């Protein structure tokens, strides 16, 4: 019997774990994706026809953000993104021929035109904006059906610097200008393959004007009068705790 491998087994955005939210160990299959160099760790998709083994359960990866430590979540994030990349690049985008998995690199290679398709990430900026010494800007997305308020965030556009993306997204979503933009931290965010790049900025000018197709409500909130904020484990929560309480990112 071969050595068992620690397995990240996904069904869409849900991960197979036991009752203690630990990963199972399984026999390795030919189609498994090894993704931690030198370790017996694999990733695979759970097919619709497969039965979930007794003692295991599918848990949304978003839920695991609040349970696992940062390293565990980042490994799961890497696994789900690599699986999605492999699923979405079974054919060459140049000539349409079926691709093959590169034996060493993370690349789907066309055997006909030799074009290689590598994993891609989507950079997103997320910004905590302060006003004075005791207020931060929070916004409620129209897609959020609850009462949670979050930070201003959006995708980086072609030809744009990260700082320009911060300025544009803030102006578009809430109508204010910012200054003193500075980088804080980053977090891989597998929904589906984003890299959240965190910045802090200061309010400069303007009255809040909502981008109505994106933002339901927004305002500056006192540190001691915050509404419901993003859950622990998210980069947004860490940013808010960093600014208000000086907690490390």
Describe this structure in words.
By secondary structure, the chain is an alpha+beta fold. 19% of the residues lie in helices and 35% in strands. It has four helices and 15 strands. The protein has helices at 61-65, 70-88, 162-174, 235-245; strands spanning 5-11, 14-18, 25-26, 33-34, 41-45, 56-60, 100-101, 108-109, 116-117, 122-131, 135-141, 152-155, 177-189, 194-205, 215-222. Strands 1, 2, 3, 4, 5 and 6 form a six-stranded mixed beta sheet that branches. Strands 10, 11, 12, 13, 14 and 15 form a six-stranded mixed beta sheet that branches. Strands 7-8-9 form a three-stranded antiparallel beta sheet, with no helix packed on it. It starts with a strand and ends with a helix. The mean pLDDT is 93.
Q: What is the beta-strand fraction?
A: 25-35%
Gyration radius over CA: 21 Å
Q: Whole-Å distance between the termini?
A: 44 Å
Shape: globular
Could you estimate the helical fraction of the residues in percent?
10-25%
Low-confidence parts: none
User: If helices are DSSP runs of H or I spanning 4 or more residues, what is the number of helices?
Assistant: 4
**What is the number of strand segments?**
15
- From the structure provided, what is the oligomeric state, counting identical versus distinct chains? single chain
> Overall mean pLDDT score?
93
Briefly note the structural class of the backbone: alpha+beta
Largest sheet: 6 strands, mixed
Order of helices and strands: EEEEEEHHEEEEEEHEEEH
């Amino acid at each position: 019997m071969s050595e068992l491998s620690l397995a990240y087994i996904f069904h869409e955005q849900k991960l197979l774990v036991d009752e203690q939210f630990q990963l199972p160990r399984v026999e390795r299959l030919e189609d498994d994706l090894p993704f931690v160099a030198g370790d017996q760790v694999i990733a695979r998709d759970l097919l619709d026809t497969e039965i979930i083994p007794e003692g295991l359960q599918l848990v949304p990866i978003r839920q695991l953000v609040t349970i696992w430590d940062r390293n565990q979540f980042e490994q799961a994030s890497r696994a789900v993104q690599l699986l999605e990349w492999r699923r979405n690049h079974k054919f060459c985008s140049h000539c349409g021929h079926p691709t093959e998995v590169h034996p060493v690199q993370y690349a789907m290679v066309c055997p006909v035109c030799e074009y290689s398709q590598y994993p891609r990430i989507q950079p997103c900026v997320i910004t905590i904006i302060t006003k004075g010494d005791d207020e931060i800007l929070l916004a409620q997305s129209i897609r959020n059906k609850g009462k949670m308020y979050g930070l201003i965030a959006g995708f980086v556009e072609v030809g744009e610097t990260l700082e320009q993306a911060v300025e544009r997204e803030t102006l578009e979503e809430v109508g204010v200008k910012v200054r003193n933009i500075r980088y804080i931290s980053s977090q891989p965010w597998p929904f589906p393959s984003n890299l959240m790049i965190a910045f802090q900025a200061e309010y400069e000018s303007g009255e809040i004007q909502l981008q109505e197709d994106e933002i339901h409500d927004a305002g500056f909130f006192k540190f001691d009068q915050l509404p419901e904020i993003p859950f622990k484990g998210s980069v947004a929560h860490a940013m808010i705790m960093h600014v208000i309480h000086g907690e490390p990112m």
